[in-house]
Amino acid sequence: MTRRREAELAALFETASELAGIRDPDAVLRSIVRRARTLLGTDVSYLSMNDPAGTYMRVTDGSVSPLFQKVRLGLGEGLGGLVAQTARPYATSDYFADARFNHTRPIDSAVHDEGLVAILGVPLKLDSKVIGVLYAADRSSREFPPEEVALLSSLADHAAIAIDTASLFATIQSHNEAMKRAEEAHDRLTDLVLRGGSSAEVAAAVGELLGGPVEVLDTVPSLAVRANGRAVLVGSTWVCAVLAGSELLGGITLAGRPELSDAERRLFERSAAVTALLLLLRRTVAEAENKVRGELITDILDGRDPAGLLARARRVGVELKDPHVVLVADGNLSAATHYASVHRGLAGSRGRDVVLALPSPSTEVAREVAKALDATVGAAGPVVGPVAIAEAFGEARRCLRALQQLGRSGEAATMADLGFVGVLLGDRADVSGYVRSVLGPVLDYDTERGTELVHTLEVYFACGANLSRAKAELHLHVNTVTQRLDRVSSLLGDWQSPDRLLEMQLALRLLRLL
What we know:
Largest sheet: 6 strands, antiparallel
Distance between the termini: 37 Å
Strand content: 15-25%
Shape: elongated
Strand order of the largest sheet: 3-2-1-6-5-4
């Protein structure tokens, strides 16, 4: 599943790069349809474009029927007409048996002539307007799972922008001077997309092209939002919302140019679309990388294929052959994932714990993480390689549990930092053996007779070895408490000397940790 997501993400990036570099509208459409068929592995893919009367077939890939290649659908007719009318994806595993669609003789004849059975259609939307429909279809029955619908929809989103960009460039070509400026703008914005540039770089490039300062904002006036991706003049500043479908990602402004030609205004609006594309690509990459990083941590801790894990980690920029500190925290997974991504490490979850593996030569990084995540952090390492990371995880987790039991919330520590407790909890310590050596007879007595000598000792020490306070806490008569302590003496001998008292209290605390 991870390899498939990585392959799909790479294919989308490749598609976005290819579409960004094509200026011929027909070539853009052919590339889109070819990519759709490849990505979903279907028999046929095709694309229809909208006009006032409905939607008409424009490009096909894998089609053998001349009748199908010339079919036209009215709004609301067939699967494609319904997609064009509602702006929503539709899929069917058996077109002719599906009563959701308005079946007409010309459409059904064309679909039958092509031999299609299963069809998926998604809208190509430019802002809120549906400009066409992208399809993937098979000649046998099949289901289209949600991830395939999302994949084709992502391709359609890239395609709509590419179609509009190519159409815009074709229009501007009729004006010689405007064409030169548009070509420069196209090349520069394309270069930014291919390089994975930032929104600030887009603003700088567009500002230079339009002769005014351009700024990317987190929020925009409601007037710009209502304009739905079109530039509006607010005072002496042009404002355009940066939108991904109906999601507002921010806005872009141009100052110092109260008058813009149509071509300049379209360029400014296109810069907002390119900014949205870059932000979406960055978010998609971040989400995919975070999933991969979380799955990597899980597979490392499960001890799966160390050689394969090294290669998978390199694909997200993590070199596991470098020293890594292993951290186990009780903080927020989302914050930990962001921290690990920024610092070129890995983060994921294991049960209720958050696990990080960060490249560092020192466990001092644990204190930085505790502060950044507002969490308690146990640390181990540094260690090298997946196997060592898995082994260090156990020690870091035990360290976290010790900090929690000791009431040291919000702190970070290694076993060495915990002193004697750390020695007992370290990798070579026999903690269970130590507890039994100190409390064994008492533990056995409680188990065999159902008594509560261990609990009595815990309360007794918690009350500062004060009988009166202990009997009140236990809701027992003082004589009963005394009898229980006498029973402990008969089992353990003289346990109230200073050294034995320390061992007893430590053993009781470790028993709780276990």
